């Protein structure tokens, strides 16, 4: 489930893709939103208000602030959950999130469920309980992924439509790897032939690779097909989408480190000479930035895979200065099925590694 959950999280974090899925799940809500004003993701707040999960890591959830298109200065929250397997407690969880978010913000909370399972008759849309004369009824909108018309998705020129189709076909082919390979190759061809720009193509191919994973033997066959497409079309094939997110964290850490290094360099320059101090500060900033970027990218990956990262795990990661070790832990995270398993693996890695000096970057 980690791969599917991560792909859905990354999908919903792109405003254009979020807009596309809301248009299909709830056309009325889509028309009510002023999309030109943008959206604001409230994931940190969602983690704080999230009720205890009773469905395991088979859920992806997002909380987004949007503005209405009627001209009034009014905003609402859209709560989105992706459920990959039927669960009898899912509707109750939807209600718990909705009620908790309303208590925190005192704004309308509109809940959407994306049902990515293949159980045709499992279609939760309400949570209800009653006792005597007292009754509670909570209704939400559900989009059953398997109901989407493939012809409509193929006719839609937006890149998001191909990603949604990839999610749909991934569910349909989870027990037939050969069929999944053919579906993935078809989507690869469509991506190439539609003439998207380099960034869009990069994004789409990364999603295809991550959503529709294959056994190693068929993965090699897919890679051979990619090489053939590269020769025929000159399209640039890029790393997996998760690796792209890790690179974003690394780049952000480096940039922040350089900025801090320049500030330190100016202070040192007062005593040692401005030029020398700034040069030393930049060198230290780059080194510290790479280290912080590797730490941040690992924390970001854990968040994508498992949700909220415990504070003690964050503190432990912040204390690791060896960049190679941090990068190796990213591979470890991808192999783990839960945060508890990663915590054990992290402990094993640190116990087998040489002792390090405590981190002095001041972060917690």
Fold and architecture overview:
There is one protein chain. The protein has 364 residues and is α/β, with parallel strands linked by helices. Helices cover 60% and strands 12% of the residues. The chain is built from 15 helices and 7 strands. The protein has a 5-stranded mixed beta sheet, with helices on both faces. Strands 5-6 form a two-stranded antiparallel sheet. α5 (90-105) links the parallel β3 (75-83) and β4. The longest helix has 33 residues, at 274-306. It is globular.
Layout of strands and helices, then pairs:
Blueprint: H1 2-12, H2 15-25, H3 27-32, E1 40-41, H4 43-49, E2 59-67, E3 75-83, H5 90-105, E4 109-115, E5 126-131, E6 134-139, E7 141-144, H6 150-155, H7 159-172, H8 177-193, H9 198-211, H10 216-233, H11 241-272, H12 274-306, H13 311-318, H14 323-335, H15 339-352
Parallel strand pairs: 3-4, 4-7
Antiparallel strand pairs: 1-2, 2-3, 5-6
Helix pairs in contact: 2-7, 7-8, 7-9, 8-9, 8-10, 11-12, 12-14
């Amino acid at each position: 489930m980690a791969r599917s959950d991560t792909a859905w999280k990354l999908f919903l974090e792109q405003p254009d893709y979020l807009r596309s899925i809301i248009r299909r799940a709830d056309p009325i809500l889509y028309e009510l939103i002023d999309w030109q004003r943008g959206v604001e993701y409230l994931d940190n707040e969602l983690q704080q208000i999230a009720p205890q999960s009773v469905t395991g890591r088979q859920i992806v959830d997002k909380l987004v602030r949007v503005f209405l298109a009627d001209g009034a200065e009014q905003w609402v929250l859209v709560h989105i959950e992706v459920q990959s397997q039927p669960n009898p407690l899912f509707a109750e969880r939807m209600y718990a999130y909705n009620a908790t978010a309303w208590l925190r913000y005192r704004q309308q909370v509109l809940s959407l469920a994306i049902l990515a399972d293949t159980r045709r008759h499992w279609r939760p849309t309400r949570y209800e309980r009653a006792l005597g004369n007292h009754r509670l009824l909570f209704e939400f909108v559900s989009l059953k992924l398997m109901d989407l018309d493939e012809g409509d998705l193929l006719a839609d020129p937006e890149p998001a439509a191909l990603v949604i189709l990839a999610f749909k076909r991934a569910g349909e082919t989870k027990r037939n790897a050969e069929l999944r390979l053919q579906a993935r190759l078809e989507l690869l061809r469509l991506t190439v032939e539609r003439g998207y720009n380099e960034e869009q193509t990069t994004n789409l191919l990364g999603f295809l690779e991550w959503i529709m994973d294959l056994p190693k033997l068929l993965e090699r066959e897919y890679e051979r097909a990619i090489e053939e497409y590269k020769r025929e079309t000159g399209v640039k094939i890029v790393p997996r989408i998760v690796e792209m997110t890790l690179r974003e964290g690394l780049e952000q850490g480096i940039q922040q480190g350089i900025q801090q290094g320049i500030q330190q360099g100016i202070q040192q320059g007062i005593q040692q000479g401005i030029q020398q101090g700034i040069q030393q500060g930049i060198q230290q900033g780059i080194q510290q930035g790479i280290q912080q970027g590797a730490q941040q990218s690992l924390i970001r990956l854990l968040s994508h895979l498992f949700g909220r990262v415990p504070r003690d795990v964050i503190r432990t990661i912040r204390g690791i200065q060896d960049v190679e070790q941090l990068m190796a832990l990213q591979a470890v995270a991808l192999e783990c099925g839960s945060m508890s398993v990663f915590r054990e693996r992290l402990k094993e890695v640190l116990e087998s590694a040489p002792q390090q000096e405590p981190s002095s970057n001041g972060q917690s």
